[in-house]
Amino acid sequence: MSELPRKAGGAVLVLVALALPLVLSDFWLQTGLFVMAAAIGAVGLTLLVGVAGQLSLGHAAFAAIGAYVYAYTTGETTTSVTGLGLPPVLGLVLAVGVAALVGAAFSPVAGRLRGIYLGLATLGLVFVVRHLLVNLSDWTGGFTGRSVESFALGGFSFSNRDPDYLAVAGVEFEGLHRLWYLFLVLAVAACWLASNLRAGRTGRAWANVRDSETAAAAMGVGVAQVKASAFVVSSGYAGLAGAMLALAYGRVAPDVFGLTASVDFLVMIVLGGLGSVTGAVVGALFVTALPLVLAQYSSALPFLAAPGSGGLDPSTASRIVYGLAIIAVLVFLRGGLAGAARRLRQRTSTPAAPPAPRTPDDGDRPVAVTTPRSKETTR
Amino acid sequence: MSYLLEQVLNGLSYGLVLSLIAAGFAIVFTSTGVLNFAHGSVVLLGAYLVAVLHPTIGFWPAVLVGMAGSAVTGVLINAVLVRNLADRKPDTAAILMLGVDIVLLTELTRRIGNQVLTLGAPWGASVVRFGDVSLPTGRVLAAGVTVVAFAGLWYLFSRTDLGVGMRAAAADGPTASLMGIRLSRTAATGWALAGVLAAVAGVFLTSFPAPGVAPTVALSAFAAIPAWVLGGFDSVPGAVVGGLVIGLTSALVTGYEAELEPFLGTGFGEVAPYVVMIVVLLVRPSGLLGSKEAVRV
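Output (structure tokens, whole complex):
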């Protein structure tokens, strides 16, 4: 499989994403913003869980930290909350930085624990952060949360003002349109960085530790350090995703970043296929857009009832569909959607090839036969 | 003084209920290596069955049906889903259980709706007095039933062929299999046991002083996860110790919230179990009574 078709496909997708704001309605733009923010969080988590093999249920906690750091550093001091009033760009950088720092502070735990043990420890993190968000109300606004300053770059605001009227090809570009491009740039940069990290030295070290800590240590990989680095990188991604969610909502509140959000991030990467960046993006698209779209179009779907009428309302339906999707993917599709796509590609591109030799850990991964460089340790 | 004693007794009895749930986590984990995130929903399922059935068939038969229902659900989850996983790794199984939990919990939430179902327990809201300390009858009963249940578990695991087989399977599955122990049977027994314990815990978690069966019960069953982790992942006695520690901690933190609030903030009772869990995991990654994880190359 040469790299060219994949790159061309990516370029086409980016071009389509660039053109979409010209035709989409506000609902779809808003959905797209949520999808892109979630995709960045999912990509960060797939590096941690899929590549480095550390289960984390605390991703929402880091997203919360990013969101609140952005809201606090860029916000103005009012009667109810304080804020630093820093420039938004600095706020975004700080959001990523502080989330990564907290990840680093948690890494002594992460370095000692593995697999589900780590997952359980990070589960505690979600509850602790939520408690802090509710109680540090001077900074966070408590239960009701606080509003978020819109993003601005050198006098150009990503909101409906400043400049008041901006149009491209006859379509007025309002806050949602402007944010779309900001998010697109961030998302593409985050995916590109993640792919490179995964394919490079860092990613190989992560995968090595995932497959066997002892073997990795014997190869000269500093296990604790490598595990901590995966945790820090993933926390930084989560922080960025959190700040973007805050921008998309225009408000932050503790309930957005509960355990459900952590589970949602995990589900995105499992549906897409653990360790796959593209898979994480597709998973984010599915998990984020499904409930919004079902709610928006529930009147047009015959099997859905109005919320509160006792029938199958849209949010219940989307929860059940999404629970069943997890089960179905885990039981039937080894390696998630990315794994299925890989098998499909293999089948169509090399029909006469003998079955690829199987590695004990991941039976379906093609070994060096189809790729010029052996990538089997990094998926 | 009697206030302190009351909080301690409340905490211990609540902790014993938690330890029933925690033991369910530990048994499923040792018999199949699965972190059962759907356990909270199974607890809710047991309580829901009792609440729905007790007007027609009476409370005690309803409890039996609830126990059977939870046990069968557990066995089915294992036989149909866990055993057929495409990728048999602990992490994947844990995520699968999150999916099962979402489906079960959403369906139960939809059926319960906004109401709080009454459980119809015969002890109602009565209170037992010991001197100047009073405890809800349900809690006293829970403590008694839990002690009996753990005595039963001890007997099962140390005196019966089935229980010894389960321990052998947990210690070394392939070898136990070679010795003629049927792993499918020990696994099913483990899931069924966990389901029965979950239903019993569900009954006590939803009777007085709790208002009744509501979807939030599944979340309060989550508080058993710190109890389980604290005790050690593979240890049933550890689950008891962990449950008691967590029960005591949350009862005391909640009971003295007014005094603690300036330092810890409101609602710390819900977070305290997780803080204790993180601290214990830092000091002893395998829990208080858990066995150290062996590392093979």
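The two ends of chain B are 56 Å apart (CA to CA).
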